[in-house]
């Protein structure tokens, strides 16, 4: 911008001023300048890519600037050439070179990339940079391919090389000398220890009659050595035991011993438990057995009759279940037979009831089977008929007409059938005959009928014999004598009001309850007209249950009535006067049943535990229900509570089974209380109940369940190894062992690394630990699977996905890419003195491998020779002039730029930029005399190498001098002893025995030989003893024989026998 003044030539002159502003339009006249990588000095290795690099790995970044402005400064990066275009790509806008696939072992080590940088001007201008990339994991691999990637020759100076070589050689010789000395010392020390503990005397003189191995002859005795080896030997060495007190051990060189190997066997018997199963009743059996059989008498072959084998009886634990307290029959499971356990008395068991039998059940388990067995007891004639009295006295009036009847008490025979009383015989029969009538209840009414009139004057008394006999084998009979006294006439007999009386009475009626009243009349008067009542001709039980008033005829209850024992009783009530006249009437008493018996419940079989996977219909219990009442009072109904998955079924009369009705789930309900209720139909009904508890055993049917299927956790990088990330947990609804959850890490690879090298999971509590420190720059996130597995059989498991997000930390300082700081100070840029304000000196290029705000970089000018001359762009790092350069400005300008990131805490890097303010190179060189490579490093390296070589050489020479001095001293001492002419004193050890002596070893020697169980040969071969077959030992010595190993140890060959020399 300038001012133009126009002035005329008048007087006074007039003028005007105009300001002219010239805008210079930028032209694309500057190509891009590549700041990084630096291309001076030929090709070089810019970056090295490990073979484990994954997709997207950042190789390097091409940094370029364009001094033009506007769109002429917009730069784009393209990959022009590449050794393998399928491996690398270049970011169009940022110039980042990244891998686009996984690096493999087949990729070439040497990769050469040509990147072209273009601006956006017209015409466009470009710059090309060559980036050499080494795909390798180590520098030796790189150097073998890149022959031009060598170090600077200053580092390969001949002096340094030879100094290092000399130091290495001298150090090697010195260390070798020390190792040899220490080895010799240790060897001699071990030899002295062997001699010290052997207690062998030094024998400089061989005694006479000594026999070496070259001598001829044989040992006078045979010595046997027993060698035993156990199967649990853990060592393969043959160890010879202590020799006791004997000091001479003579071994036959040709003897061999054999060791027997004993193998033990282990038998494992596994008997799994079977669940208890129940099946319905499959059969019934009926047997007949005479009464009074001896104990152990055979009843029947139950196994054969029910189609069972003996093994089933044994395995099913067959047993007999009876209702009562007495068991007459026993089961012999080994033979499958039923035998008499207790003497059976039919009369005691059944009385007069025929047929007489008793029943019981045979139950088997696993599976449960129920069989009903009925045994009929056959009566034998073991009881004789007997009369209630031995004698019967009758008084009969002589006026009794022919045909008059006189009732007699019947005899009683406990037997039944043909063994019961079959006939009565009356002797003599001149005046009387005998009539026997059968009554409805089975009793016999015996009457004596007068055939011929009596005449007291002719015969005042008569004696008769009444004989009762059965038809059994052998025949049995009973007698009673009848004494008849003939009285004077009493011609009217008592007459019952009615021949048959019927009455009902409740069972359990108290004693004294009036059942009915019997009445009779006698036409006579006076004493002959008085009537008395008595019960005659009844069964024994009825006499104890009822009584009749002799005067009034009232029949009362005298005992406890039980409807279940007898439902009807018939009494014969006799009416008689004071004379000889009598009449008999019948009284039929009907017992009315009362609901007085509570139903009973008896568990026949019960399993208190059931598996939750049992199918519906599985039986858990068998029970028997009984009510001794009759009719409706004895009809029972059995039920269980309805709020449980069980039902009750009737299998046989009086038998019920409880089975599962639905699928069981222990996780919902672990046990059930079953209430069994039984009620009859009486009025009022009687009820009984029984409670049983059934536990549901667990089955491993529920897999562990995580709280959530996916977990996500953020972990800051640089964590300490072993850091607890977080805890995952899974719950198992099962119980016990089935609910014990263990956690396992599912193996997988993450970026080529096993996940187990990153994290671990505690198998007991699910705590996830970091195995190593995470680096966000290498792994930003990863996920893996954790399996939760229970301890059931078979085990169940579930899987949860865990995602670990690595949180970036500001752990990486900025890296300055340009200007390059390696090799000491150098002139980076030259600024002409004509540079104007805002002149771009250079650009500090830095990167931060962190992410987010941790990678936001800011540039500040920390130090400067002239702070008023330069400034640094806060965001872009551009160094520009802030005023016009003048001649007064110093040529040498040193700027210290600090690059800081935005992390907490912030990290920084410092770069020194040397700027020369000059218009020509001679002017620069005259000022920058210190811009040469620093040689202090090489000088220091040479000094320390010479010093180290001198020290090591001194130590080595000193060691040699000491060794030679010691050797000369010992040689001189040995020469003095050699010329001393000292006599050799022969020494005989105590209790020495030569080979020609006779006798046997005085003591027994036990030698323990241990070998491993995997030895392929069991022979232990004792080899020849070399040049001496006599071992002389001090009796007091305690020690073991040493094993001498040759260069090739035979113990290293498992197929070879053990040889001891």
From TrEMBL:
Listed SUPFAM superfamilies: Cadherin-like
Any coiled-coil regions, as ranges: none
Swiss-Prot/TrEMBL keywords: Calcium, Cell adhesion, Cell membrane, Glycoprotein, Membrane, Repeat, Signal, Transmembrane, Transmembrane helix
SMART domains from the UniProt entry: CA
Stretches assigned to the Cadherin domain: 2-34, 49-146, 271-387, 388-496, 497-601, 602-706, 707-816, 831-928
TM helices/strands, residue ranges: 159-184, 941-966
UniProt topology in membrane: Single-pass type I membrane protein
Matches recorded under PROSITE patterns: CADHERIN_1 (PS00232), CADHERIN_2 (PS50268)
Region (Disordered): 697-716
UniProt record, GO biological process: anatomical structure morphogenesis; homophilic cell adhesion via plasma membrane adhesion molecules
Gene3D superfamilies from the UniProt entry: Cadherins
Matching CDD domains: Cadherin_repeat (cd11304)
Single GO MF annotation: calcium ion binding
Listed GO CC annotations: plasma membrane
Subcellular location: Cell membrane
PANTHER family: CADHERIN-87A, PROTOCADHERIN 1 GAMMA 11 PRECURSOR-RELATED
Annotated function: Potential calcium-dependent cell-adhesion protein. May be involved in the establishment and maintenance of specific neuronal connections in the brain.
Name assigned to this protein: Cadherin domain-containing protein
Species whose genome carries this gene: Perca fluviatilis
